[in-house]
Amino acid sequence: MPDIGAFELARMQFAFTVAVHIIFPAITIGLASYLVVLESLWLWKRNTVYLDLYHFWLKIFAVNFAMGVVSGITMAYEFGTNWSNFSKFAGGVTGPLLTYEVLTAFFLEAGFLGVMLFGWKKVGPGLHLFATAMVSLGTLISTTWILASNSWMQTPQGFAILDGRVVPTDWLAVIFNSSFPFRLAHMALAAYLATALFVSASAAWHMLRGTDNPAVRKMFSMAMWMLLVVTPIQMFVGDAHGVNTLKHQPAKIAAIEGHWQNQPHQQSLPLIVFGIPDMAAEKTRYSIEIPYLGSLILTHSLTGTIPGLKEFAPEDRPNSTIVFFSFRGMVGLGVLMLLLASAGLLARWTGVLYSSRWLWRFALLMGPMGLVAIIAGWITTEVGRQPWVVYGVMRTRDAVSNHSVMALTSTLVMFVVMYFFVFGTGIAFMLKLVGAGPQAFGEGNTTDPGQKGRPARPLSAAPDEIETTSQG
């Protein structure tokens, strides 16, 4: 049993809260854009199917948005409680970036969220679409500032260190640092993919239960098109991100590949498909390799090589055992997404998109895998940055606050219990909304959350009672 100290517990606590939190912003980003598309299509074509889907997903968006806000507040406090030395050292950069998020994205979302959720019968359709678009824009602006802050920690630029603290000298260099464009694009596309998988799984679940109506068919079709378009783009962006990481964080790439050293006169680098990196023995055991493919993927050349982990001091090496498997999990899920999208295209081509039960089961199984891939990706990028909290500038161990093991253990247990209770309940309620299925929203349907006392909380946008969808 390894001896876990206060430093490891602080990392575990932050990792847990981040892993839970990232689920909600990812779906929020994707659903917000999806709602803009649905409302725009309804205004354009006046097809009530789009209107039904808009109000169906709006309720789910409201619940998810609320959980994202609540789970995000915790991390802001953790910077001060558990990582006060990091905040003291780098707060001159990270503090303003997070403030800019509040002043732009949060205020934009807060200003239009009420109109979006409760203003359907109170404002004109054009203004309501504008409100939906502004909320969607706010989610993307929020992503931009968060990724700018995290990317600066990965590839710090535009700063000087004065009196033991980081002082920004060039804000454009701070924000638009070397890895920022790749990380922003990669995360935004990942959110769209996760949402498309969530939507397709919801439709597949209803079709498998015998609910076959135009609304369910439409959201399944739209989700499959989204997967088909975005998955190849994400793979291209991921490749560009990898090339950028090799340039600025070569130790991370070596750890991801389980690559320890270049052999004398080695003319190419194989791709290790499977193996078990052994940090103590400085080797990857039981490796299964494909010749030349590593060089081709990493350097876009059949003879290119990269630095091995042995070229870095032991104290500067990321944990290869963790990132080796988290990266392959992310890539493997990406391949399955492409397979699902291709299967959907084939089913559409052969006319069995709405009758192929094996495709529906495949889509249902892939429902949560976009979120799993996002978590695996963040594990790769954050563990791969270690042992640095600001790469090459400040070590993670120097960033932690001085807390006792007992204090961190008790708060970690409290977080786990409370998170599973609060967010477990929220997720269960959100899935119950999904299970109810799209309902007709038009003449004869007077259900309007805005008519019930104008509730001020997003969760209030969801109905108190949910009718069970009839079985077909």
Please describe the structure with a list of short key phrases separated by commas or semicolons:
2 domains; 14 helices; two-stranded antiparallel sheet; mainly alpha
Account of the protein in words:
The protein folds into 2 domains: 20-177 and 403-456, no CATH class; 192-399, no CATH class. The protein starts with 5 loop residues before the first helix and ends in a 36-residue tail after the last helix. With 472 residues, the protein is mainly alpha-helical. Mean pLDDT is 88; it is low at 443-461 and 464-472. The strands form 3 sheets. It has a two-stranded antiparallel ribbon with strand order 1-2. A two-stranded antiparallel sheet has the order 3-4. Strands 5-6 form a two-stranded antiparallel sheet. A hairpin with a 3-residue loop joins strand 5 and strand 6. It has helices spanning 6-45, 48-81, 84-118, 125-154, 171-175, 180-208, 214-248, 250-257, 293-299, 320-350, 357-365, 369-385, 396-399, 405-436; strands at 159-162, 165-168, 271-278, 283-290, 388-390, 394-395. The chain has 14 helices and 6 strands.
